[in-house]
Amino acid sequence: MKAPPAFRQFTVFAAIGLANTAVYYAVYAALNIWMPYLAAHVVGYAVSITGSFLLNSYVTVRTRPTWRAFARYPLSGAANVVGGGILLHLAVSRLGMDENLSAIVAGVLVTPLSFLLARWALTPGAAANPRSGPQPPQSPQRSPEQVRGAAPNE
After folding, report:
1. Non-local CB neighbours of 10 within 8 Å, separated by 6+ positions
2. Using an 8 Å Cβ cutoff, are 84 and 107 in contact?
3. Do residues 55 and 16 lie in contact, with contact meaning Cβ atoms separated by under 8 Å?
4. How confident is the model over 36-81, as pLDDT tens digits?
5. How many CB atoms within 10 Å of residue 116?
6. Could you give the 3-state DSSP secondary structure of residue 37?
7. Which residues of the chain have pLDDT under 50?
């Protein structure tokens, strides 16, 4: 039995997210040796978000990246940080959960929202539907009158 397209997209998105985290940390740790940690963080984030954008464009939603999508893509990361922060705070302050465990749980719980926002950012209009693949260009519809009056070479 074949998995639904949205499930495939979500699992690929999650795997890319794990790899993206490793890339961020590798760049951050390597640069932090000889530059201030905040500068290393910014460069690590820029490298990882760019890689994540390209991988999720080509592999997850199977679309060509655009500048518009690149500008919208960080919203999924912002939702992850804000949503994860809210859930983390609630888990620790209201539920009394361990801070480290709460961070993992919050990250897992907010991932579907991050996925939906990333898919929205990467896909134009109706292409966000996971069942729709690349569509061939449509020829303009012509009325019967236009067809009858068309030149022989049309």
Report:
1. 112, 115
2. yes
3. yes
4. 999 999 999 899 999 999 999 999 999 999 999 999 999 888 888 8
5. 16
6. helix
7. 126-140, 147, 150-151, 153-154
Question: Counting beta carbons within 10 angstroms of the beta carbon of residue 61, is it exposed (0 to 12), middle (13 to 18) or buried (19 or more)?
Answer: buried
57: amino acid identity, one letter? S
DSSP category for residue 128: G
User: What's the pTM?
Assistant: 0.70
CB neighbours of 96 closer than 8 A, spacing ≥ 6? none
> Is 65 buried (19+), middle (13-18) or exposed (0-12) by CB count in 10 A?
middle
| pLDDT at site 107 | 86
Give CA separation, 148 vs 86, 106, 140, 144, in Å. Answer: 64, 64, 16, 6
* Residues near 50 by beta carbon (within 8 Å), at least 6 away in sequence: none
**Separation of alpha carbons 59 and 107, rounded Å:** 22
Tally the C-alpha atoms within 13 A of residue 10's C-alpha that lie toward its C-beta: 12
Separation CA 127–CA 143 (nearest Å): 28
